[in-house]
Specification:
globular; about 35% helix
Length: about 300
């Protein structure tokens, strides 16, 4: 398994590649190229609330009389671009950034925003992760995510739930236990009837469960169900990656995960190895739409094996 990862020198925004073989080097060079070439585009949810797309996780930005509040911060290289887009949309300086979780593609922009004075908010487990060096097991490689400097860390944290009154609406941050990571937050904009799910909901292929860092496949399903109970059939649903969607798509995604969980759990309880689970193709109904399930099943198998052993 190859180890790769970015180390950002904030002053120059230079990206140092820490390893190694040609295929991995090509992937990382492609990421650098994407950050250089990809523009920030926007999609209006309603007046004062927009989704920004670039490189990394989807961003939601609230712009109004209270100022600018942003959910997730992508990469440092993207920060000048999304600041320009926010200005085009009528906003100014970014007052608050809410991290849906601690992974680099959603939170590394903190390295720019924090030192500039933006208040950063996260679930307490995510802050704990950001204070330490991390290795993210992506199955085919390990991504090295160094600890953040103090200025880039969340200064406001919560355990299960907290609320903002900002730009004329209540904004709820909800945590329902381990899911994609151990520190996920769904962000619900009550007046706009919209929710940002972070990577608990991936609308661009099978999701990733960061099992090695405390994520849980069972927890991902429970998290989605809990959010569905908080919203309604008219809610706009913003995934961590992929196009903006709705309640029905989130419900269908949750059903898909539940069916896969039941199939894989039955196989494990019958003594199947990971290789046998993959060969049984428990995801075949959805592979045409979601893509190659190999890495997903690896993490599902690890998570469910632990859950079954703990019973």
């Amino acid at each position: 398994m190859m180890r790769v990862g970015p180390s950002y020198r904030v002053g120059s925004l230079s990206l140092f590649l820490l390893i190694a073989t040609a295929p991995v080097r090509a992937q990382l060079d492609n990421l650098v190229e994407q950050m250089r070439e990809t523009p920030i585009t926007s999609q209006r949810i309603s007046d004062g609330l927009h989704v920004l797309f670039g490189v990394g996780g989807n961003i939601v930005v609230s712009i109004g009389a209270s100022g600018v509040l942003m959910v997730d911060s992508q990469f440092p290289q993207m920060a000048p671009k999304y600041k320009d887009k926010i200005s085009e949309l009528g906003g100014g300086n970014i007052d608050f950034t809410l991290n849906t979780h601690w992974h680099f593609d959603h939170a590394d922009g903190n390295l720019i925003l924090g030192p500039e004075g933006t208040w950063i908010v996260a679930q307490e487990n995510s802050r704990d992760r950001l204070t330490q060096d991390n290795q993210i097991n992506l199955v085919n490689q390990l991504w090295e995510q160094p600890a953040y400097p103090a200025a880039a860390l969340p200064t406001i944290t919560f355990k299960d739930q907290m609320s903002f009154e900002f730009n004329g609406e209540r904004i709820d941050l909800l945590h329902y236990g381990p899911a994609h990571t151990s520190g996920d937050a769904a962000v619900v904009f009550r007046a706009h009837n919209a929710v940002h799910m972070g990577d608990v909901f991936n609308n661009n292929g099978y999701p990733f469960i960061d099992f090695d860092s405390g994520g849980s496949f069972e927890g991902m399903i429970d998290f989605c169900r809990s959010v569905l109970n908080q919203i309604n059939t008219d809610t706009v649903v913003v995934p961590g990656h992929g196009p903006v969607t709705d309640y029905v798509e989130l419900a269908d995604y949750t059903s898909m995960l539940s069916q896969i969980r039941d199939r894989v759990r039955d196989l494990i309880e019958d003594g199947a190895t990971l290789e046998q689970v993959v060969a049984a193709r428990p995801t075949r109904r959805w592979d045409g739409e979601q893509g190659d399930p190999a890495n997903f099943l690896d993490r599902v198998y690890a998570s469910l094996t632990q859950s079954i052993s703990a019973q």
